[in-house]
C-alpha cells in the first residue's frame, strides 16, 4: 500500500472536520436559564425563578404533576399520568430545554430573561 501526500492531506481534513463537529455537538452554546415557564394546554399559568429552591404542584384538567426547582435546575418529581415519561426525563437548566407531560398537556420550559420573563418574544414580537 502506497500512501501519498494527498491521502494524508485529505485524511487530516476529514479528521479535523470530525473533531469540530464533535465540539459543536457536545459543547452547545446555550445559556443557563433564569426562570421556568409553566404552560398548560398552551396557556402560560406560572413562572418561577431558578434562583430559589421550591416545590410546586401543577393541577391540570387531566391530573397533577409535581415539579422541583433545586440548585438552578428543574425536574418533574411526580405525576399521576399513566406512562410517567415526564418523571424519567433529566433535570433541565439551559434556556430552551423542556420537560413535557403529554397526557396532562403540561410543558415546562427554561427561559432566560433579566427582567423576570417580561421580555419580547423574538418570533412574534409580543410578550411571552
In total, how many beta strands?
Answer: 7
Largest beta sheet: strand ordering: 2-1-7-6
Any idea what the shape is?
A: elongated
Mean pLDDT: 86
Which stretches are poorly predicted, pLDDT < 50 over at least 5 residues?
Answer: 115-128
N-to-C SSE series? HEEEEEHEE
Element layout with pairings:
Elements: H1 5-26, E1 35-40, E2 43-49, E3 54-59, E4 64-70, E5 73-79, H2 85-88, E6 98-101, E7 106-111
Antiparallel strand pairs: 1-2, 1-7, 3-4, 4-5, 6-7
Task: Characterise this structure.
- By secondary structure, the protein is an alpha+beta fold.
- Helices cover 20% and strands 34% of the residues.
- It has helices spanning 5-26, 85-88, and strands spanning 35-40, 43-49, 54-59, 64-70, 73-79, 98-101, 106-111.
- The strands form two sheets. Strands 2-1-7-6 form a four-stranded antiparallel β-sheet, with no helix packed on it.
- The longest helix is centred in the first third of the chain and has 22 residues, at 5-26.
- It is elongated, with a radius of gyration of 21 Å.
- The relative contact order is 0.18.
Amino acid at each position: 500500500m502506497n500512501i501519498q501526500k494527498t491521502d494524508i492531506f485529505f485524511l487530516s481534513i476529514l479528521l479535523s472536520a470530525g473533531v469540530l463537529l464533535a465540539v459543536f455537538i457536545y459543547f452547545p452554546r446555550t445559556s443557563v436559564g433564569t426562570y421556568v415557564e409553566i404552560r398548560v394546554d398552551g396557556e402560560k399559568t406560572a413562572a418561577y425563578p431558578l434562583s430559589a429552591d421550591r416545590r410546586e404542584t401543577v393541577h391540570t384538567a387531566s391530573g397533577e404533576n409535581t415539579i422541583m426547582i433545586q440548585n438552578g435546575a428543574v425536574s418533574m418529581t411526580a405525576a399521576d399520568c399513566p406512562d410517567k415519561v415526564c418523571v424519567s426525563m433529566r433535570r433541565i437548566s439551559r434556556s430552551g430545554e423542556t420537560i413535557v407531560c403529554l397526557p396532562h398537556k403540561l410543558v415546562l420550559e427554561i427561559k432566560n430573561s433579566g427582567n423576570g420573563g417580561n421580555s419580547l418574544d423574538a418570533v412574534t414580537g409580543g410578550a411571552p
